[in-house]
Specification:
Layout: H1 7-24, H2 28-37, H3 47-77, H4 86-90, H5 92-104, E1 106-107, E2 109-111, E3 117-119, H6 121-135, H7 153-163, H8 170-183, E4 189-191
Helix pairs in contact: 1-2, 1-3, 2-3, 6-7, 6-8
Organism: Chloropicon primus
Family: Belongs to the ACBP family.
InterPro entries: Acyl-CoA-binding_protein, Acyl-CoA-binding_sf, FERM/acyl-CoA-bd_prot_sf
């Protein structure tokens, strides 16, 4: 049951939350706020809770569509054509500029068991491709411990990501890096600034 002593207040709040959910329509920003403010409805089995859950599903679909549209738009900005992206593969200077942009992206941080953190998976995938394209096969040993004495999770992740593409030709690694850079979901970033390199 809801943690409220005044049930009239609860039902008034529920009615207000329902109105916000319905009034939000297809407006994603309004729907986000409406779903957030109606979260207390999850505590009580009711038609209102079913409406909230339906709104959550609707919001999820809208966010997925917005993300897909963003990725499509990014490709269109790049020419939506692999021929138009060749400049990043054929020009060493352009490729290094792309690598610099990749390193400066605001990557989401993922918490691991035990309190350690790492960056989004795509960061490491791109790291391996970038290093293979620029330096060729990995020759270093896998790091075990960081300078502070703890397990070097980040070092091991970047080592693994580079080692897994061992033997891949530099040009192939470049092309894969470019394709992955413009193709990954913006959900891996706090802020997607990839468009800047296309300006």
């Amino acid at each position: 049951m809801p943690d409220r002593t005044n049930y009239n207040e609860y039902y008034n709040d529920a009615a207000s939350a329902m109105k916000r959910l319905l009034d939000a329509g297809d407006d994603v920003s309004k729907l986000i706020e409406a779903v957030k403010s109606a979260s207390f409805l999850e505590n009580v089995p009711s038609p209102e809770r079913q409406t909230l859950r339906a709104s959550k599903r609707k919001l999820k679909r809208a966010l997925l569509k917005a993300d897909a549209d963003s990725r499509k738009s990014l490709f269109q900005s790049a020419g939506d054509d692999s021929e138009k992206l060749k400049k990043f593969v054929e020009s060493d200077m352009k490729f290094k500029q792309l690598c610099d942009t990749y390193l400066k992206l605001k990557w989401r941080i993922v918490k691991m068991p035990g309190g350690a953190t790492r960056k989004a998976d795509m960061y490491y995938k791109l790291f391996g491709l970038m290093k293979q394209a620029l330096e060729g096969d990995l020759t270093e040993d896998c790091p075990m411990f960081a300078d502070n004495g703890n397990i070097d999770f980040h070092g091991r992740f970047v080592w693994d990501s580079w080692n897994v593409v061992k033997g891949m030709p530099n040009e192939e690694a470049k092309k894969k890096f470019v394709d992955e850079f413009f193709g990954f979901s913006s959900s891996a970033l706090y802020k997607d600034s990839r468009r800047e390199i296309l300006a």
